[in-house]
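Tutorial handout. Part one gives the primary structure; part two gives the three-dimensional structure as tokens.
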Amino acid sequence: MELKLFIAGLILFAVAMFMLTIKKKFTSESSQKTFKTIYSWVDTGWTALIIASFLMFFFVQAFKIPSGSMRDTLLEGDHLFVNKFIYGFHIPLSGGARFLPIKNVSRGDIVVFQAPQSALSFEEKKAGITKDFIKRCIAVAGDKVQIKNKKLYVNDVEVNEPYVKAKDVNIYSGTDLADYQQNWEKGRFASVRPDYIRDNFGPVTVPAGHYMMLGDNRDYSFDSRFWGPLPDKFIKGKALFLYWPVNRWRVI
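Part two.
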């Protein structure tokens, strides 16, 4: 979106510059008045688009909830603003370093991020498609995570999660999987049967530079249980404000 706005702004800027080169051809009073009106709109348009693209790239991004994985906290079709600078700006070619972070990603934060490759289908990977997800961070680097009969434990302490709603009364016992930690880190659980790990998962330890992201609609969320820990470099920002629909306005 930011790139599209920037390109549109550049196109309008080029149009504005072209209009200045032909300005002298409008000699009558009426044509000059029409020219000034059109030029004013074009000049305002390219300026607004460039500023908007700059703000969206560095500071705030609009995001639409694509699925029901965060029900009932966020619903399909909800529109919200994402704070892109709170975790700092990514420094290109730095291996994931951030510049001027206000805070680190913390447990409980609702975060927008680029989906890792392990979360994409074969067709999406082949087509070079990228997707953004929104989930809740439930663990950071070094945390031990385990789910027992739908109850989340972080560092062997049960986590109170009032935002999680169990929609399925069934509790799957899960199964033992070989090389659990290694296969989880590599995102290999994305292709296993959901009942193997949905309600009974781990224990695993979140590796350095990674986070564990889960949906609040825990029974119907495709999240870090399946596609593995999320690298910090994929973080885009923290959910800030739900602005649409208007009857659900609130700070997140």
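Part three, for discussion. The domain at 60-251 is CATH 2.10.109.10 (Umud Fragment, subunit A). The CA atoms of residues 25 and 31 lie 9 Å apart.
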